[in-house]
Design goal:
mainly alpha; Growth Hormone, Chain: A; two-stranded antiparallel ribbon; 2 strands; disordered C terminus
Length: 417
């Protein structure tokens, strides 16, 4: 059955339910992802690992993530995404539950790689599905709401992971993280609709090799994903190593470091995400370049407080970290909206797969290992300084990309099945 919405609104039936459930699953994704940084000092001690080896855990997660992204992008542009999202969510929960039986570094790498495959599926399918529920001018708002799950989920991962690990061991942290994933997967299965793919006239766009290759000539698309990759290098590196930095250089216990990261991520991350989304929404009424300029400002403004955090006095570590996190998250909603708006309707899943490939291959896949290698040869402060260069590169790429920002249009009627 096809249900149509009121003319002029351009929002498909079931859109709000889909946004709520997919945002909830995005929260679970980031909760799962940030448990490991919260407990990595315990893992390092148990398995007697170097910082280089700890960084490699994220490397293998990202290798699996990016290698599976082209496949999930191909699937997402051709088949219903709802059942694939449900399967991915249940697979993520299963992987986390099985982590309790991991007793070696190689097994932990394999487990983390398997988690990367599941998260790649969701990361491709969910934004593309939401884009079919909402018109162009609403996607910045929608992606901002969807990405609110990032700081909240990351904070929950830090906070809960560190607390559970301190009282019950680090393996138990992963067992508990499997429960919300199963619950949300079942809610998606029973309550979320699969939307009709929205094209210029409600038709499904043709997806062939030529149209996919056209993305390589799409300057608006390329600059959005390359700028995002530079920022992701920094955000990934800081997210992974900051609990260790607080423990080693700022004198916090492992539990206290995780407990501190949680509130910082929630308050600063939520505030930055909300303000950045609002600023882009208001600014985009004057110019469609706003979806690029807000991420550019976000990356540039983060550099000064980050320098203070890494190299300043101990008393300023926490406030400068909070300010840095706030500024980093200003651009998370607008950059995803920019990516979706830069491509045709039938290529959204492929475009998101390309974005995931770029931000991880060039971003957080190498960053944790690069920082770990530098730390082993110098110290963690110097390792984290690599993120400052990436912030500067991201600001430059987004600024240049604003030249090719596509015009925003109001869509008419959409349909959902």
């Amino acid at each position: 059955m096809v249900e149509r919405v009121k003319p002029g609104r351009g929002i498909a039936a079931g859109a709000t339910m889909a946004l709520v459930l997919l945002t909830a699953m995005n929260f679970v994704n980031y909760l799962d992802r940030y448990i490991l940084p919260a407990v990595q000092e315990q893992i390092k001690g148990e398995f007697r690992l170097t910082d280089d080896q700890i960084g490699s855990l994220t490397l293998w997660f990202m290798v699996a993530y990016v290698l599976s992204s082209p496949i999930t992008g191909w699937l997402g542009d051709r088949f219903p995404r709802k059942p694939m999202i449900v399967v991915a969510a249940l697979a993520i929960a299963a992987v986390n539950f099985l982590t309790a039986s991991v007793h070696g570094y190689a097994e932990l790498n394999l487990r983390h790689a398997a988690l990367g495959i599941g998260e790649a599926c969701f990361g491709v399918f969910a934004p593309a599905l939401l884009a079919d529920f909402y018109p162009e001018d609403q996607r910045n708002r929608v992606m901002t709401i969807f990405n609110i799950a990032l700081p909240v989920g990351a904070a929950a991962g830090y906070e809960a992971g560190a607390w559970v690990a301190a009282h019950h061991g680090w393996r138990t942290s992963f067992i508990w993280s499997a429960i919300p994933g199963v619950i949300v997967a079942l809610l998606i299965l029973f309550f979320m609709r699969e939307p009709r793919r929205a094209g210029s006239a409600g038709e499904k766009a043709k997806v062939d090799r030529a149209s996919v290759l056209s993305l390589l000539k799409n300057k608006a698309y390329l600059t959005s994903i390359l700028g995002y990759a530079a920022v992701t290098f920094s955000l990934g590196g800081i997210s992974w190593w900051m609990p260790s930095f607080l423990h080693r250089d700022a004198g916090y216990s492992i539990e206290a470091a995780g407990a501190l990261m949680g509130p910082i991520i929630v308050v600063a991350g939520l505030g930055g995400t909300a303000l950045g989304g609002w600023l882009a929404q208001v600014w985009s009424r004057r110019t469609s370049k706003a979806l690029y300029l807000v991420p550019a400002l976000s990356a540039a403004l983060t550099i000064p407080p980050a320098v203070v955090c890494f190299f300043g006095p101990r008393a300023l570590v926490v406030p400068s970290l909070a300010l840095s996190i706030f500024l980093i998250f200003l651009g998370t909603g607008p950059v995803n909206a920019a990516t979706l708006n830069a491509v045709p309707a039938g290529l959204r899943a492929t475009a998101m797969a390309g974005q995931l490939f770029a931000i991880h291959v060039l971003g957080d896949m190498p960053s944790s290992k690069v920082i770990g290698m530098i730390s082993d040869h110098a110290n963690l402060r110097v390792g984290l300084a690599a993120t400052l260069v990436a912030f500067a590169a991201g600001a430059l790429i987004f600024g240049v990309g604003s030249r090719w920002a596509p015009e925003l249009h109001h869509e008419g009627e959409l349909a959902a099945t």
